[in-house]
Structure to design on (118 residues):
């Protein structure tokens, strides 16, 4: 995949554009990345700001993916604990019946299932 320019990107009103366009600029390289014109609504500035935030948004997405992997691994470790044979050593419930409400392993199982889409 081709890399996007790293940013930051900024917005500026295009004074030559009679359609109320907003330009998105690569602030480092100093060139126009896009012209945003919404001539049906008054959303050009908001749309341009959203697009201009793309490099920071992508960086935050990547950071959160890494954090998510760490948390999922911690949840997998937690869910794997507590089994001392027939009873959970955290909530004293029979493992055949499942963990008691309030058991951290039960909460971990639910969070892991939600995160993994189960
Ligand atoms: Zn338990």
């Amino acid at each position: 995949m081709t890399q996007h320019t790293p940013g930051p990107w900024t917005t500026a009103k295009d004074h030559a554009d009679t359609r109320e366009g907003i330009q998105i600029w690569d602030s480092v390289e100093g060139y126009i990345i896009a012209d945003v014109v919404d001539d049906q609504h008054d959303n050009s500035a908001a749309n341009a700001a959203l697009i201009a935030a793309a490099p920071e948004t992508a960086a935050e997405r990547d950071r959160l993916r890494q954090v998510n992997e760490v948390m999922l691994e911690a949840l997998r470790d937690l869910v794997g604990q507590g089994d001392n044979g027939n009873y959970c050593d955290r909530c004293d419930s029979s493992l055949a019946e499942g963990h008691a409400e309030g058991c951290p392993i039960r909460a971990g199982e639910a969070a892991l299932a939600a995160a993994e889409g189960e």
